[in-house]
Design brief:
It is built from eleven helices and nine strands. It has about 250 residues and is of the alpha/beta class. It is globular, with a radius of gyration of 19 Å.
């Protein structure tokens, strides 16, 4: 039986999705995207079971990007926009998501991790948009998510030049939350995931929905959006208040 291209491991309310093609630097083949999408769609319906999602990868690199050999071989995804739609599905997960990234994270892989809410990088990380090196253009969201993450000035420079962005710079420009030694990447990511999952999942889902829903609104419209859509107290509020009172 062949190993899955994307594995899932659940621990204490956290789901860890792991790209599992290390021998190919986790190149993003259509088949890998199909498996990733299956996991994402399943997790989207498990809000009572999963409170935080981690996207990570085996081997020395997160992903070298789109699988060019698969493209040359004529491999195709189920639909023309399947990869882009999968990243949208990742972005729209009700649970907070964290990308743990080491080594190469090029082009399509960068587009993929930009679909996550948060990002932690190992010191070996190397981000780049190499569309221009192969006369390709973005289709999975680079031109929209990267400028929103780091601003249009920096995004255009990175996209136009195709240069590599290393971990320290990624954290400085807001592409990643912070950078850690590679040996600590998994542990530090799980630490953050546990810290997030320890909070009310009701609040986590509401926070994500409200922040994402207001991103393209002006301040006054955003405030109105929050008032109209904030779900209010969660079902675990009383229990949490009692636990707090007992400790104090």
């Amino acid at each position: 039986m062949e190993a899955p291209l994307v594995s899932r491991d659940d621990r204490e309310g956290m789901a860890f999705l792991t790209l599992n093609r290390p021998q190919a630097l986790n190149a993003l083949s259509p088949a890998l995207f199909v498996q990733l999408r299956q996991h994402i769609d399943t997790i989207a319906g498990q809000t009572s079971k999963i409170g935080c999602v981690v996207l990570q990868a085996e081997g020395r690199s997160f992903s070298a990007g789109n699988d060019l050999r698969a493209i040359q071989a004529g491999d195709k995804a189920p639909t023309p926009t399947f990869q882009a739609d999968t990243i949208i599905a990742l972005e729209r997960l009700p649970q907070p998501t964290i990308a743990a990234v080491q080594g190469h994270c090029y082009t399509g892989a960068l587009e993929l991790v930009l679909g996550c809410d948060l990002m932690i990088c190992g010191e070996s990380v190397r981000f780049a948009d190499t569309h221009g090196k192969f006369s390709m253009t973005p289709l999975w969201g680079m031109s929209q998510r990267l400028p929103r993450r780091i601003g249009p000035l920096r995004a255009k420079e990175i996209m136009f030049s195709g240069r590599v962005v290393h971990g320290k710079e990624a954290a400085e420009i807001g592409l990643a939350n912070f950078v850690v030694p590679d040996a600590e990447l998994r542990a530090r990511t799980e630490e953050m995931a546990r810290q997030i999952a320890a909070n009310s999942w009701h609040t986590l889902r509401a926070d994500k929905m409200l922040v994402d829903g207001g991103q393209n609104l002006g301040l006054q419209d955003g405030l109105a959006f929050e008032r109209a859509n904030s779900p209010g107290r969660g079902p675990d509020m009383e229990e949490r208040l009692k636990a707090f009172a007992a400790k104090n």
